[in-house]
Structure formats: structure tokens, C-alpha cells
Amino acid sequence: MLPTRLKPPMDVVARTRDALGEGPLFDADGGRLLWVDILQSRWHALTLSTGAVRTIILEEALTGVAATTGGGYVGAFRSGLTLFDDHGTIDRWLHRPEQDLASNRFNDAGTDPAGRFLAGTMNEDGEAATGHLYSLDPGGNLAVLKSDIIIANTIAFSPDGRVLYTADSGRGDLGAYRYDPQSGDLGDRLTAFAPDPALPGVPDGSAMDAEGCLWNARWGGGCLVRLTPDGTTDRIVELPVPQPTSCAFVGTRLFITSARFGLSDEDLARHPLSGQLLSFDAGVPGLPRPRFRHEIGA
Asked: What is the dihedral of CA 14, 20, 22, 26, to 10 degrees?
């Protein structure tokens, strides 16, 4: 069966002109949609009830974030993992595991069903497989889940928490792995999940819906794809931007970050919404992201 192709009405909800918008997250307690602009070291917060956008310029680029059960946030900054407050002030550095790798930085991040914080790194040259996928447990201990990654992207879990979806954008590879939500251990790759290699672009960030389907942003492909648990392409949603980077649900509404980086003046003239925060009604509710279960001592 061929996938359904859609071009839904698209709202521009924030005109932030991000060089590299990434990491959208719904902070339910604050009623805000959070996201970052990695290349301009900016952290945005959209208050959904008013449409007001707050932007903070950070001393170091933030690449991924999660709210914590103890208040404040845990984040993947360019050089490491931190606890920080709503003003972007770092409380403390937890881990800087790749300071000896000059070409590496942190990239995508998210939480598992038990409240661990998973964050991946990437090689900025886009060639060497020097990246890793890390897991930060509630007590602050760091473990390596996966190595040999060029550009780590997508951290999303099946509704039962037993499958982790993650991508290596440098290889154009999006995979599913067995996962133990109790122990946090990563298991074997599931060969049953086999996305079409001819999908447009390469896999970037993703969000999971309540029906167990993965919505994946396709960098360079100008679309989102909805993939069933066996990797079948259920829908292709055409977007007015060529470089969507990630997405996050608020109810049935899907918010999409995008990038201007790497686009020529001619590209930007054809796609003037590049770098803006977009949204549309996906018609299916999203799976909420758990908070980081903060048990790190003083």
C-alpha cells in the first residue's frame, strides 16, 4: 500500500529565523514549547496560551533539554551534560565525556520511560564515527549505550518503553532496538523495523504518537514521515521548508523545528519559512515525554 501524501495547512507559530532549530519539547507544567537554535546558542520558549516567545542567549550552545522532577532542567550542551535553571544559568556540570574529541559535540537528547536522560554526540565534520549515545540515570551516573555513530539523532520510545528508536544521520540510518526500561540496557537491533531506504532526505529528530507510530523529520527531504512499528511509511507530510530538524507533540498538534544553515540565498527565497517554528494538526495525540527523575545529590 502506498503511503498517504499530505500537505496540511501549516501555521507559523514563531518567526525566530533559527540557523539550526532543534530539540522541541512540550513543558506541560509551564504550558510552553521549548526549543533551541544550536548554531546561535539560543534557547526559545513559546507560551502557548499567549503566543509570546522568550529567547535567551546562552554562553554555550544547548542541543537538547528535559524538565526534571526536582524543578529546573537537565541539558545536553555542546561540551557536556548539566543541570540548569529557567534562565539558562548552569547549576553544575555533570559530565563532559568527550573533551578529548575536538570535532565532537552533543546533539539530540530525550528521556526514557523511567526518567533517564539519553543524549547523543556527533562528529561536526560529518565523516568519522566518533559519536556515542549516552544514558544519564537519575542518580547522575553516565553509561554508554551505543558507539560508532557519525551524527546521533532521534531518541524516541514505543508506548510500552521496550523499543528505542534512534538514528545516525551521517549514515542515513534509522533503527529500532530492544530496550529494558527497568535497567536502561540497550539490546539487539530489531530487523523487523525496516524503513524504506528511498525515503526523501535523511532521518533527523522524531516524536512518538499514542498509536505507536514514529514521526520522523527528514533533513533535506522537506517532509515528515509517519512510520508504523515495522517501518512501513504510513504518511508523508510535505513541509514548506527543505530542512525540518525535529518535532514534538502538544495534544494532536505537531510542532516542527527547521534550519536555515546551509541554504543559499536562492534556496531561502524559495523557502522563506526556513528556520521558523511551524505546526499543524496531525490528527492523532502524541506520547508525552517523561521528566528526568532528578535524584542527584547536592
From this structure: -20
pTM of the shown model: 0.97
Dump pLDDT digits (tens) for 225-257: 999 999 999 999 999 999 999 999 999 999 999
CATH number at residue 185: 2.120.10.30
> Is-contact 111 117, C-beta < 8 A?
yes
Query: What kind and span of H or E run contains 164?
Result: strand 163-168
User: What are the residue numbers of the active site?
Assistant: 204
DSSP assignment of 196-217 equals -TTSSSEEEEEEEBTTS-EEEE
Our count of domains for the chain comes to 1
R_g (Cα) of the chain, nearest Å:
17
Residue with cell 534509522: 174
Residue 297 lies in a domain: no
Among 247, 184, 177, CA closest to 214? 247
